[in-house]
Write a structure and sequence with these properties.
Helix content is about 20%, strand content about 25%. With about 200 residues, it is α/β, with parallel strands linked by helices. It has one domain (about 35-190): 3-Layer(aba) Sandwich (Rossmann fold). The structure holds S-adenosylmethionine (SAM). S-adenosylmethionine binds next to helix 2.
Length: about 200
């Protein structure tokens, strides 16, 4: 990674989920419920022990990755007060190749930019959480066809990102994995609660 900006607090405390456009968080902060991250790891795990979460927010995804034994580098364009955030950094400005894995829930409207940028950085193992209809959008479908993923993993059951019942949506993981051979696999995953994890 580049010489990263020190972890300075901007005092930002934004939450997604506002109903009006004027309330919309331009950085699209929606904390990922933990069962969605566990669902990914129940189907696919990176071989690399080190994972970059480049849009870590308050660490909802990074914490689960750490609980699951992965070493996590956590960055975000702002500092939301997450204790394990390593740096403030605009992922889309990163220029150095990254040899580890990448797992994230990017800002929804920039998902394709994040995916393209991660591929451009030469990342060999990566997983992105998006809305379930993501690949049905024309320009996204064209990207998919140019860069067929290893796995698409729809997660069964809806995500309530704020705990307030809004927004509630179906989500899926898309995985690119240089170790994968053959065509794109499609596997369903269940949301996994903590108590269901093996000891
Ligand atoms: C949908 S939230 C996901 C938060 C976290 N990944 C999670 O799953 O709980 C998107 C996050 O992306 C961050 N973000 C937006 N643009 C970014 C950029 N260019 N580089 C890094 N982070 C960015 C936002 O600040 C926000 O925290």
């Amino acid at each position: 990674m580049s010489d990263l900006i020190p972890n300075l607090s901007l005092g930002v405390s934004m939450r997604g989920g506002g109903k009006d456009k004027k309330d919309k968080d331009p950085l699209e902060f929606f904390p990922t419920p933990a069962p969605f991250t566990r669902a990914l790891l129940s189907v696919w795990r990176p071989r690399s022990p080190t994972v970059w979460e480049p849009a870590c927010g308050e660490g909802h995804m990074a914490d689960v990755l750490m609980e699951e034994g992965l070493d996590v580098i956590a960055t975000d364009i702002v500092d939301r007060g997450y204790e394990h955030q390593d740096w403030m950094w605009d992922f889309l400005q990163e220029t150095k190749a990254w040899g580890g894995a990448l797992i994230t829930n990017p800002p929804f409207s920039r998902s394709l930019d994040f995916m393209q940028h991660a591929l451009d950085l030469g990342i060999k193992e990566m997983a992105f959480l998006t809305k379930i209809e993501f690949w049905a959008v024309g320009k996204n479908a064209r990207f998919y066809n140019r860069n067929p993923p290893a796995l698409v993993i729809p997660v069964v059951g809806r995500a309530d990102f704020t705990g307030a019942g809004n927004p509630v949506m179906y989500m899926q993981w898309t995985v690119w994995d240089a170790h994968h051979q053959g065509g794109t696999l499609h596997k369903l995953a269940r949301r996994i609660q903590q108590k269901e994890l093996p000891l």
